[in-house]
Amino acid sequence: MDYRIFPPEEMIDASITLPLSKSISNRALIINALASQSLPLKNVAKCNDTDAMVAALSSADEEINIGAAGTAMRFLTAYFASIPSREVIIDGSARMRQRPIKALVEALVDCGANIEYAGEEGFPPLCIRGQKLKGGRVSLPASISSQYISALLMVAPLMENGLKLTLEGEITSRPYILMTLSMMRRWGVDCEMVGNVISVPKGEYKAVDYDIEADWSAASYWYEISALSAGCVALKGLNENSIQGDSRLVEFFGKLGVDTEFAEKEVSLMPSPEQLSHIELDLSEQPDIAQTIAVTCCMLRIPFKLTGLATLKIKETDRLEALKTELAKLSFDLRIEQDSTLIWDGDQHPIFEEPHIDTYDDHRMAMAFAPVALYMPGVVINDIEVVAKSYPEYWNHLAEAGFVCVDASLPVEEVLTEE
After folding, report:
1. One domain for residues 223 and 122
2. Does the residue 205 lie in any domain?
3. How far is CA 228 from the centre of its chain?
């Protein structure tokens, strides 16, 4: 289904209960499953990605399909490889079969895993025969997805010799690695990171009572809405001292006209006169908010240069090309440099067609472009169901804030008459 979106008639003043963090939820599910004794998690994110993880961990089937859940594919590959006597074939969607996993497979094999490709080498599906891993010393390129690194780290305490992992080069998405290590320590494993070397001793996860934070990545779309509308938004469930790297939204959107005030497990977003005329950001540690920031800057007519985006090419879609293509529909001429940098110098061209934004099976494309309705009422977002991957209540929350989301197949005249 496609939605045509219209902005609120009045100034935005909304209070939103954000979804729980799927990044924290997925790590908590794996670590809790690896613990010799564990307490039930009180609550985890309710979204397709986490649902796929829950279903896989509770399944006794020999064939497991995780759909489009990239985190689940990486984490479960390491998990099943480390469970003795467990044999599974793990597969996913057509796009998942195009997303590389060779670096993780090779690292696990170096640690003693038994994994074979059931299709094209380097990509899912995988045939995994679980066994006790020996561990030891392993090296990985530091620029690869942090999900590979986190997957390896979480199973490291079960390895006979523990793990000493050396990351070669400049580290991408460091906050996600630090999140994983923080959670492992919370479950009783004494791991440490010194420079580019991570040491995890052989050990045992202990039972703990763990609360999962709300999702700072989901908060980004409300920061965008606040920036574009000069409205006020309260976001429930966020921690000021968060283990999530995307909490740097506070700093980034401080440059885009949004002030943040913290209360207990809640933040308030308010308009600020402080707004830069040009912005340059290194998002190597926050790649998931690149779409939000790019769209916000374009709508505010703030030229930008966003670097550190190499991992965007292997996400749900090639997010760099997707952003360039869809923002062109809104008149903005972006360019991509070195497959890792996105630039808008302020160049625009005339548009003569009503913009219909394609989402490429990517939840973040849909959610980042929906607030464009504040500047272009009636913008159409295609395939709105994609938000279920991380934020199923997104459209309902937009409606709570006053946006009108209607079936795009209805004639515009009919929609306006009803309104």
Report:
1. no
2. no
3. 22
What does the chain come to in residues?
419
User: Encoding tokens for residue 226?
Assistant: 């606040």
Task: Answer yes or no: do 307 and 333 share one domain.
Answer: yes
CATH code for the domain of 175: 3.65.10.10
Residue carrying structure tokens 């985006």: 309
Which pair of structure tokens corresponds to residue 353? 């067609």
Provide the whole-model pTM: 0.90
Asked whether the beta carbons of 84 and 134 are under 8 A apart, the reply is no
CA gap 336, 386 in Å, rounded: 25
| Residue 273 domain flag | yes
- Cβ-based neighbour number of residue 334 at 10 Å: 20
Q: How far apart are CA 355 and CA 213, in angstroms?
A: 36
Is the distance from CB of 195 to CB of 177 less than 8 angstroms?
A: no
Structural domain that includes position 109: 22-200
User: In sequence order, what are the residues at sequence separation of 6 or more whose Cβ sits closer than 8 angstroms to the Cβ of residue 94?
Assistant: none
| Catalytically annotated residues | 288
Tell me the one-letter amino acid at 325.
T
The whole-angstrom separation of Cα 332 and Cα 329 is 7
Q: Could you list the mean pLDDT of each consecutive 10-residue stretch along the chain, which spans 419 residues?
A: 96 96 96 90 92 94 93 97 96 92 96 96 97 96 90 98 94 90 96 96 94 96 97 94 95 97 93 94 93 98 95 81 96 95 96 93 95 97 95 97 93 59
Residues near 224 by beta carbon (within 8 Å), at least 6 away in sequence: 292, 295, 296, 368, 371
Quick count: other Cβ atoms within 10 Å of Cβ 410?
11
Q: Give the tens place of pLDDT for each residue, 319-353.
A: 999 999 999 999 999 999 999 999 999 999 999 88
DSSP secondary structure string, 89-137? EEE--TTGGGS--HHHHHHHHHTT-EEEESSSTTSS-EEEE------EE
> Where are the alpha helices (H) located in 102-173, listed in sequence order?
102-110, 146-155
Rounded Cα gap, residues 368 and 218, in angstroms: 10
Q: Could you tell me if 235 and 195 lie in one domain?
A: no
> How many domains does one find in the chain?
2
Residues 168 and 276 both lie in one domain: no
C-alpha distance across the termini of the chain, in Å:
20
The two three-digit tokens of residue 84, written as one number? 């003795």
